[in-house]
């Protein structure tokens, strides 16, 4: 199983013109098919005067879910080349929408493939990329007198401290890359002179 993947760093748009047709490419980070389709619907309503709103999306840390839609363009000339761009950039959890205002000149199949692909690439260039990491989460209980020192020691070892709860004891919520999880209990034992025992609390994907 992969322990990291790329997604877009931010939502972004880019526009190009080909033989008087305008192509507005937009990419956005999403977490589900429902979210992806909601983005398409939002852009369709926002640019209601455009003829086509073609789309493609890739979802999941392994890119297992992939969809594309030509929205009235000749089959294979819009959604498929957009999807190929997403695959080529190796990004996931992202939807791409290219809105076209027809300029009166037919572009032909090859011209459409290039235009939709180029608009998607331009939007991705504007968005940038961000790596997501699979992190193993742990809870570490500490006495109040030790909590701040343990937290500082762990941070100095690049352990992510996602939060601290204070009750009768302090509970440090920690995250480490899944690939480093096997050695984490030994690290905690060394830093706490054997007093700290991290309790596994699952896994989650976080932005690197």
TrEMBL record:
Residue intervals of the Impact N-terminal domain: 19-124
Gene3D superfamilies found in the cross-reference section: Impact, N-terminal domain (3.30.230.30)
Record-level GO BP terms: regulation of translational initiation
Pfam families: DUF1949, Impact_N
PROSITE patterns: UPF0029
Positions of the UPF0029 domain: 141-194
GO terms for cellular component: cytoplasm
Family that this chain belongs to: Belongs to the IMPACT family.
Protein name according to UniProt: YigZ family protein
Organism: Nocardioides mesophilus
Lineage of source species: Bacteria, Bacillati, Actinomycetota, Actinomycetes, Propionibacteriales
